[in-house]
């Protein structure tokens, strides 16, 4: 299984640790971490940790883009980022000792039509060597709302789509193998309760700490973490996507259990893109998917 992750709005992630976040107050930062980020990059990191061959691509530009590529190389994450003139965005996550995380996300660079056309040719070369593609995150300025739909249709292999808003609705209509919205994103993208009505073959829908539900052609299952998890939830959804890819050939109930367990282990890790392996190994067997009766 060779995975290609695509992060069109990649970021240089900055994480601050503070005792407590108080609006209007001065904060003493006890720890700072800077690393390459964006949802697809986080997925690539976790797939690498799970032993799945992966290549990360997306846009990278300016000094932040250079730092992003340097960090990927330093972390041994295989990558083929596409250069652009605009400056890669930064995201700042402030994590309090309580585990509460507050995220500040810049909008990202403006991608020109010429750069988008160049990336499509770049993508066509990379996807020819992949077994599954992950499309994750927001779209940078300058790209059309149907950018993910274009990438779904251009892929000769199954696609996992993690997006929201019009990008999710249009991308799902192009027929990816799996979409992974949360409840709020699903409500925004569709007026019907069935997520498969959007056009994907399957859907993994997150309900935050209450767990996830897998909607498939073979049935619907739900599962929840074995206990209340506290920590940094920033990369939890990316962990679920990584688990789906790593367990691609497993039956859906087992894939769901893997997604819930790895997502919980990611909340326990201090940085997005990592997971608490000891917690994952200890609690994976405690996640029990249950069938959801049809209405």
UniProtKB/TrEMBL annotation:
Listed name of the protein: Tagatose 6-phosphate kinase
One GO CC term, this protein: cytosol
Keywords: ATP-binding, Kinase, Nucleotide-binding, Transferase
Family: Belongs to the carbohydrate kinase PfkB family.
Stored SUPFAM superfamilies: Ribokinase-like (SSF53613)
Pfam families xrefs: PfkB
Organism: Lentzea albidocapillata subsp. violacea
GO function terms (MF aspect): ATP binding; phosphofructokinase activity
Record-annotated Carbohydrate kinase PfkB domain positions: 14-269
């Amino acid at each position: 299984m060779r995975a290609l992750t695509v992060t069109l709005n990649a970021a240089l992630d900055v994480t601050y640790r503070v005792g407590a976040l108080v609006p209007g107050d001065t904060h003493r930062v006890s720890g700072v971490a800077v690393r390459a980020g964006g949802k697809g990059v986080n997925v690539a990191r976790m797939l690498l940790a799970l032993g799945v061959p992966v290549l990360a691509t997306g846009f990278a530009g300016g000094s932040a883009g250079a730092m992003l590529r340097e960090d990927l190389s330093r972390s041994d994450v295989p990558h083929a980022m596409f250069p652009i003139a605009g400056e890669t965005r930064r995201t700042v996550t402030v994590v309090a000792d309580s585990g509460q995380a507050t995220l500040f996300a810049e909008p990202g660079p403006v991608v020109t039509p010429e750069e988008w056309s160049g990336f499509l040719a770049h993508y066509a070369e990379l996807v020819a060597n992949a077994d599954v593609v992950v499309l994750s995150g927001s779209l940078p300025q300058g790209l059309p709302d149907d950018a993910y739909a274009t990438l779904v249709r251009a892929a000769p292999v199954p696609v996992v789509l993690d997006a929201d808003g019009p990008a999710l609705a249009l991308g799902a209509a192009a027929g990816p193998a799996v979409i992974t919205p949360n409840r709020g994103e699903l409500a925004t993208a569709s007026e019907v309760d069935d997520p498969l009505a959007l056009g994907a073959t399957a859907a993994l829908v997150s309900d935050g700490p209450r767990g996830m539900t897998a909607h498939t052609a073979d049935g619907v299952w739900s599962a929840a973490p074995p206990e209340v998890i506290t920590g940094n939830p920033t990369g939890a959804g990316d962990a679920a996507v990584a688990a789906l890819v790593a367990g691609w050939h497993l039956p859906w109930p087992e894939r769901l259990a893997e997604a819930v367990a790895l997502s919980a282990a990611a909340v326990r890790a201090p940085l997005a893109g990592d997971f608490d392996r000891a917690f994952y190994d200890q609690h994976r067997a405690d996640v029990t998917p249950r069938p959801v009766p049809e209405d």
